[in-house]
Every structure is written in structure tokens, then in C-alpha cells.
Write a structure and sequence with these properties.
Helix 6 (about 170-180) packs across helix 7 and helix 6 packs across helix 8 (about 205-220). By secondary structure, this protein is of the alpha/beta class. It is elongated. The protein has two domains: about 20-135, Rossmann fold, CATH 3.40.50; about 140-235, Winged helix-like DNA-binding domain superfamily/Winged helix DNA-binding domain (Arc Repressor Mutant, subunit A). The protein has helices spanning about 25-40, 50-60, 75-85, 100-110, 120-135, 170-180, 190-195, 205-220, and strands at about 20-25, 45, 65, 90-95, 115, 140, 145, 150, 155-160, 165, 185, 225-230, 235. The strands form three sheets. It has a five-stranded parallel sheet with strand order 2-1-3-4-5, sandwiched between helices. The chain contains eight helices and 13 strands.
Length: about 240
């Protein structure tokens, strides 16, 4: 097994609100990476072949892709080139046993943001993941913010206009998703899939309860930012009547 580290005990780590797609056809490696990233607070899903990976890429909302080169159906280079041709700018970390200089050059030239060879140490993988997720244009360092509301993804600190706001893990993940999609109407089904990693069955009130609690926390320090669009979902923004 091409891994140079062992999984650490599970720990109670707050979620970062960042979503990672791991594309790897070797089950042991995929499980190792997925488990390790989840322990660090990332929301992680996995695909084991090229076609499944492509479907996940176009259907999901990802902050980072960890991508193997050798995959059934469509290899990593093909996936990467297709992503860039379609305008998908998601950061991509190649994780592959192909360690020749020519392979690294080919991967980076195809559009990869970083390249890590197997066997690997999880600590190095994690450091590269954090480095890549800090490159997003809407963030400064590990911070994401909009309309005076900010979340420090590393320190798990939420503020509005300088005032600290205490949120639960799930409320913070919901807020991060709103901050990443300001002024957009987000359907309930999308929020359930991205924040809870579940499908909305049309009957659960889990989302409404969390939105109500998040609203209350934010509105203690300013005007309403989360607006309901009846029959359509929610919009995070400064103007209630916009659209």
C-alpha cells in the first residue's frame, strides 16, 4: 500500500466548511485520505473512477480536488484538461505514483495546482491541502467574508463587524456556504446536499431550524442578511428586495 503514514485516532475537530473531492481507485488509499481529511474538519466525498469523478465535479460544489492519474474510464489528465476547458477553476492536487519529472511537468501543464507523489506522508498532504484552499480569491489567508460577516476557517472564529459570534459546527458550515455564494438564491435541496451531505426529502425542518438560529445569532449584531425566497430557498445578501 503506497502510504507512508498511519491513520491517527479520531478527534473532535470543528468542520472547516470546505468540501474536498478525493478521486482514487485504490480503496485503501482513498479510505485513508478521506478519513484523515474528515478528522481535520473537511467535508469529503470520494469517486473511484473517471466518469464518477466527472459527474461529482459538475454536480457538486468543491473547494479542492485530490486527483489520481491512473483511473478507470477517464484518467486524471483527461479529467483535469476537461475541467479547465469547461472553466472549472477548482484547485487540483495530483496524488499519484507517477514520479518522473516529465510526469510532474505534464500534470502541472494540464492545469494541476500541485503535485504529490506516492508514497506520501499524510502531514505533507494536509499541508498542501491547506495551502491550496487558502488560494481562493474570496479568501484572505484562511478567512472568508462578505457584508461584514467573516469566518476564520483555521481558528473557527466567526465575527460580524468585529463582534464575535458563537455558532455550532453545523451553523458555521451553513454560514460558510452562504458566504461563498452571496446574493444567490440557494435551493433547500442544494443546501442539504452541500452542508449536510444528504438529500432533501421535502419534509425535514432541519434546515429551517438552523437558518432560524443562524439568523438570530447574526441579527444580534446587525440587520437581516439571510432572506427567504418562498418556494425557492434562501439568499444571503444585504438587500431584502433584491432580484
Amino acid at each position: 500500500m503506497a502510504i507512508a503514514a498511519v491513520a491517527r485516532p479520531l478527534k473532535d475537530t470543528p468542520e472547516t466548511g470546505l468540501r474536498v473531492l478525493v478521486v482514487e481507485d485504490e480503496t485503501a488509499i482513498a479510505e485513508f485520505v478521506v478519513r484523515g481529511l474528515r478528522e481535520e474538519g473537511f467535508t469529503v466525498d470520494a469517486a473511484s473512477d473517471g466518469l464518477g469523478a466527472w459527474y461529482a465535479l459538475v454536480e457538486g460544489d468543491w473547494d479542492l480536488v485530490v486527483l489520481d492519474w491512473w483511473l478507470p474510464g477517464m484518467d486524471g489528465i483527461q479529467i483535469l484538461k476537461r475541467m479547465r476547458e469547461k472553466g472549472l477553476s477548482i484547485p487540483v492536487l495530483f496524488l499519484t505514483a507517477r514520479d518522473a519529472v516529465a510526469d510532474r511537468v505534464a500534470g502541472l501543464n494540464a492545469g494541476a495546482d500541485d503535485y504529490l507523489c506516492k508514497p506520501f506522508a499524510f502531514e505533507e498532504l494536509l499541508a498542501r491541502v491547506f495551502a491550496l484552499t487558502r488560494r481562493d480569491g474570496v479568501r484572505s489567508g484562511t478567512r472568508i467574508e462578505y457584508a461584514g460577516v467573516s469566518v476564520d476557517l483555521a481558528a473557527h472564529r466567526v465575527e460580524r463587524d468585529g463582534a464575535t459570534i458563537n455558532l455550532t459546527v453545523r451553523e458555521q458550515a451553513l454560514l460558510v456556504f452562504f458566504l461563498k455564494h452571496p446574493e444567490q438564491v440557494l435551493p433547500k435541496s442544494r443546501l442539504y446536499k452541500q452542508v449536510w451531505d444528504d438529500w432533501y426529502d421535502g419534509t425535514s425542518n432541519t434546515l429551517e431550524v438552523h437558518v432560524m438560529s443562524l439568523r438570530r445569532a447574526l441579527e444580534a449584531h446587525g440587520p437581516r442578511l439571510i432572506h427567504t425566497r418562498r418556494g425557492r430557498g434562501y439568499r444571503f445578501g444585504t438587500e431584502a428586495d433584491k432580484e
